[in-house]
Amino acid sequence: VLGLVEGQFKRIAEGKAVERTKPDALFDWAHLDAVASRSKAATDAVFGKFATGPPLAHGVSIHDAWDTKVLELQDVSVQDTSATWRVNKLLTGNTDVKALDREHGAIQGRGPEKAIVDRVRAAVIVAKRDKLLEIHKAWPAFASGGVVNIQRFKAATALANRNEMWKLFHTVVHEYLHTLEHSRYRAYQTKLGQQEGSFTLREGVVEYFTHTVLDGVAYDDPLRVAVEGPFHDPLIKHPIPPYGGYAERTNAEKLAGLVGARNVMAAFFLGDVEKIGGKG
Amino acid sequence: VTAESALEAFVARDLPRIEGLPEGMTLKEAATTLGADPASFGRWFIGEAQDEVFYTQADVPGYEGGVRIWFRDGVVLQVTGAWPQMDIGALAALGDPDDRLDFRMDTLVVPEGERVYAARGLAVRLNRTEDRVVGLSVFPPTTPALYRDALRPADDYREVAIDDEPWLGEP
Lengths: 280, 171
Hints:
A: 280 residues, mainly alpha, 3 strands, B: 171 residues, alpha+beta, 8-stranded antiparallel beta sheet
């Protein structure tokens, strides 16, 4: 786990604090707003007949993730929980750790294993606290209280920057979809436990819809110019990075297979939760 | 209390002067006074029923984390400010709160950290060690139950997953 923290630090956080002090190190907000606008347009083209929402806009519904974290991490208690959060994410979500669990037949929440995992977690937090907090500050994107927070760091090359912009395009489709959730659907899914379907109805369904949108996008020249912005090169057809996202999408696809995709849409966008077996 | 005096007290972070917001304050009034752009707004959820609500944001000196105006149908439901610069000693003048509620700061849930003075239209959020005010909210005076059930914006926290995502590498 110590090695995983080091790897994550090198991958997303190393040198970022220094980067923030350099002029021209960050993507311009006008460009980011333009990308977000294209994400909304792509989503509305598919689901606009059900619902549309205000565009995500910087300073209101999109903020600089680094700035937000710096503010929150002023508080020592937030530092403590964030360091723990980062290690927990590795312990519960990392593929290498999952493979280790499988190899040993380990269930992390069970008595003997839990005692071991608790010791590992505490030791990692002590040894790597500073790096865990830098990783937390540099995490690529998060949403809190309805606001989407994204990192604005430019990469070293035009190629890498184009890639960043396409990842942003994908991320904003996902986040914009979250803002289109109907109140009645949200009230239903938030009352369910995480293992009783809440995670599937929240993240899985949004991921399912994200893929639906992205599968239909025509990556034509006007879109490439808008998304790639100053990094666009008309001589290069940049390969669009595949969208990954939450694996929970597979459970949402199973739901759609059982009740029908249109009924999942009616529940999510129109609040007709009875169509997926729910109660309002 | 008028719209102007209510927002003045909020901007000044002057707790004894805060008496909530007047009923029916318009978005236009609040946005003009606080310097927000009412045409730039987001959609979110509020209260137990997860009712639809909209918000716009303003940079207000004295609030490091900015100020959000929450509204529906052009009427302001509440105004919230994050990381107000103020002396925590000012809380003493308010007496005991009507209610204490859990709230979220990033990955941390602060148990009973939100002190609700519902009858005076004020809620104050303290950090876990109770040595810093991290949020102020003003709203039309109400009951503790109505504040809890109808006025609190949903405060969930989500992160993009990265560990298994191949697209983080170069194409």
